Amino acid sequence: MTTSTPAAPTRRQMITAGGASVVGFGFDLFDLFILLYVASTVGPLFFPSSSPTLTLAATFASFGVSLVMRPLGGGVFGRYADRHGRRRTLIVTVGGVGVATSVMGLLPTYADIGVLAPIVFILLRLVQGLLVGGVVASTHTLGTETVSPRWRGMVSGLVAGGGAAIGAVIASLVFLAVSAAFPGEQFAVWGWRVMFLSGLAASLLSLLLFRVVEESPVWKAAKQEPQAAPARAADLFAPERRRTLLTSLALVVGGGAQYYLTSGYLPTFYASINEVPPGPRGLLLVWTSLAILPAALLAGHLSEKYGRRPICLVAGAVNIVALPLLALAMAGYGPTDTGALLGYGLLLTVLANASYAVVPIYLNERFPTRLRATATALVWNGGFAIGGLMTTFVSLASPTWPTSPAGSRSSWPPASRCSWSARCSRRRPAVAWTATGRRRRSRRPPLRPLHRPLPRPLPRPLRRRPETWEPTAGPSSSPARRAGSAAATCTPSPRPARTSSPRTSPRPPGPGRRWRRRRARHRRGVRCSSPATSPPTTTGRRSSRPRAPSSAAWMSW
Questions:
Q1: Domains and CATH numbers, the chain
Q2: How far apart are CA 355 and CA 24, in angstroms?
Q3: Do residues 220 and 63 lie in contact, with contact meaning Cβ atoms separated by under 8 Å?
Q4: Distance CA 141, CA 155 (A)
């Protein structure tokens, strides 16, 4: 099969592709973060209840509904990205997310239209989750496929951590501006609507940037292969890829749980447990979001030097111990302890976001080009959906303890989330350790590929008896072969007649049954090419069945 070599991208292509991936993913997370910032305000308007806890839980349940739709959107738009390109998928999904978010700001509340308000709100959240899942299929592949191999780790951290940081920072700045423009009760009337309408402006800015972005050269090279058969979605669940798919999913589940536990829950933590006012709360969230970017870049750079697996090992082991303790300690401070709240918030966000900064490039390196967008989107969205829903269920199952020093719910529900997430993430180092099958000895592993054609299915071995060989000149058969005599000339002899009982038939002459079996498997239909060359004595596996190509076949550039 002829392989098309992807053209070397220019510096402008790498910058625009990496920037489009970061900005696209960041603005889509901005649309999701808006609900987290206004959850305490929107909850009573769409899900009124006598219990504030149930109202807040219903609001976060609408957030969980969008998480459920993200894997479906990843599968649908992932196939679209694998067939029609990453750039086209990015434009369609980012524009759709902006429209769905802006429509939420125009909805009437429960007091206006009754039960129809929460139903329409949840339907829009479903559409938003479907489109956000499709954004991952393009943003997590376009940048890493375009940049130089030496920068893939940093681009992975920039997309995963930097995109989250950009989305959180923009959401925090918009929240600060809107809170200042609509103080007090006015925020519950108009402020939250302006927050949702700002999502349309973010999508329009993203579409202006996407106009100058070119398609991934790796994807274009894969499309130009004349003999490459089109990949099917069922190929992703083939037996040789099943283990890679499951281990990658387990790796993302831990990162998703930690992300929603820290960056996703931190605005509500500051508001409900620490009772920080909106103005100082917005400043705290801005600084904690800015700290994500250097931590993610550092984790991506270290993955190029030491490998992807050691970074996952170290980050997972540290977070198991650190995250529950930080959540318990942070709940003991009030709204005036801004220095302590800032320090704990920085530690929580840095540790959690650095742990999954390597995941996008890890997923890209495990799947071929014609399945990469589908596989990456399914694994990423599925893992984050399971991780996000896990934290939501644990929060609902946690009891309401006596009030904390801050005057609200105690720290046990978020701490129980931390411990539950840590139990899930305990498997992340083991998964990362066994993902490649063995321990890597080199401290600087070779870069994994992002482009390799799909292999053809291996032919099944022929079920026939091999020829028996007799020398026509020279000494006897066995000593001539052991001594490597050049005088022996190999000529096929007719097959012996098969008796009625194959098990009791005499053993045919020749160099041995094992050698004949290996020769029939490896050199089928080939006679001795030279009279000076005797059949070699080889060593190998006993099995006559060919080994199926493993997932590591996609990793050599």
A1: 11-219+239-434 (1.20.1250.20)
A2: 21
A3: no
A4: 10
Kindly state the tokens that stand for 29.
Answer: 């997370």
Closest CA to 141 of 240, 74, 59, 225: 74
**What's the pLDDT score for residue 315?**
85
For residues 197 and 98, is the Cβ–Cβ distance under 8 A?
Answer: no
Secondary structure element (H or E) that encloses residue 492, with its range: strand 490-493
Other residues' Cβ atoms within 10 Å of the Cβ of residue 107 = 19
Q: What is the distance, to the nearest Å, from the Cα of residue 451 to the centroid of all Cα atoms in its chain?
A: 17
The interaxial angle of helices 52-84 and 369-397, nearest 10 deg, is 170
**Residue 440: C-alpha distances to residues 215, 245, 299, 346, 557 (Å):** 34, 21, 19, 33, 18
User: Does residue 489 sit in helix, strand or coil?
Assistant: coil
Token digits for 425? Answer: 């993430």
The answer to whether the beta carbons of residues 239 and 550 sit under 8 Å apart is no
pLDDT of residue 460: 53
Are the CB atoms for 233 and 79 separated by under 8 Å?
yes
169 to each of 138, 155, 285, how far by Cα in Å?
Answer: 22, 19, 7
Contact criterion met (CB below 8 Å) for 86 and 142: yes
Q: How far apart are CA 267 and CA 39, in angstroms?
A: 9
The encoded tokens of residue 74 equal: 């990843």
Which stretches in the chain have pLDDT values below 70?
1-7, 50-60, 226-231, 233, 391-515, 519, 521-557
pLDDT the model gives residue 6: 65
Return the number of other C-beta atoms located less than 10 Å from residue 198's C-beta.
23
pLDDT at 112: 85
pTM for the model stands at 0.68
Residue 368: per-residue pLDDT: 85
Provide the token pair at 137: 């299929």
One DSSP character per residue, 239-308 reads HHHHHHHHHHHHHHHHHHHHHIIIIITHHHIIIIIS---HHHHHHHHHHHHHTHHHHHHHHHHHHHHH-H
The residues, any chain, with a CB within 8 Å of residue 114's CB and separated by 6 or more, are none
Give the three-class secondary structure for 184.
coil
pLDDT at 531: 44
pLDDT at 176: 84
Q: How far apart are CA 192 and CA 187, in angstroms?
A: 6
What does the pLDDT read at residue 507? Answer: 54
> Nearest-CA neighbor of 465 among 511, 508, 528?
508
Q: What is the pLDDT of residue 227?
A: 55
